[in-house]
Amino acid sequence: MANEREYPRTKEGSKIGKIVVDRDLCITAVSCIAVADAMYQLDNEAKVVVTDANAVDDETLIMSAESCPTKAIHLYDTAGNKIFPK
Ligand code: SF4
């Protein structure tokens, strides 16, 4: 089973209801942190964790997921459908 961590997002007006980080895919490229440093941190295994799922707007969150070279950040809409990566 994939080593995934789920982070619910409850930001008002956001289309995105959940962020999932696949820890096996995270290679510590930190491009996600460069795009949205208010949201992410590296943990003691040098994998990204979401520290505040509501910290940035949808556009910035999507950009941060798109910036990940291994597509380790997966986004779901509020109905539970995967919206990134397609
Ligand atoms: S950009 Fe992707 S690989 Fe790099 S730290 Fe973020 S989640 Fe991990």
Structure notes:
- The protein is an alpha+beta fold and 86 residues long.
- The chain has a single domain (4-84), classed as 2-Layer Sandwich (Alpha-Beta Plaits), CATH 3.30.70.20.
- The chain has helices at 31-35, 58-67; strands at residues 4-8, 16-22, 40-42, 48-50, 73-77, 82-84.
- It has a four-stranded antiparallel β-sheet with strand order 1-2-5-6, with helices on one face. Strands 3-4 form a two-stranded antiparallel ribbon.
- Strand 5 (73-77) and strand 6 (82-84) form a beta hairpin.
- It starts with a strand and ends with a strand.
- The model has no long low-confidence stretch (mean pLDDT 97).
- The protein binds iron/sulfur cluster.
The count of β-strands is: 6
User: Roughly what percent helix?
Assistant: 10-25%
Shape type: globular
CATH fold-type name:
Alpha-Beta Plaits
Q: Please report the distance between the alpha carbons of the first and last residues.
A: 20 Å
Annotated CATH architecture: 2-Layer Sandwich
Name the poorly predicted regions: none
On the 0-100 scale, what is the average pLDDT? 97
| Physical arrangement of strands within the biggest beta sheet | 1-2-5-6
**Structural class of the secondary elements?**
alpha+beta
Q: Taking Cα atoms only, what radius of gyration do you get, to the nearest Å?
A: 12 Å
The biggest beta sheet reads: 4 strands, antiparallel
Strand percentage, roughly? Answer: 25-35%
Reading the helices and strands in chain order gives EEHEEHEE
Bound molecules: iron/sulfur cluster
- CATH C-level category: Alpha Beta
Q: Give the tally of structural domains.
A: 1
Number of helices: 2
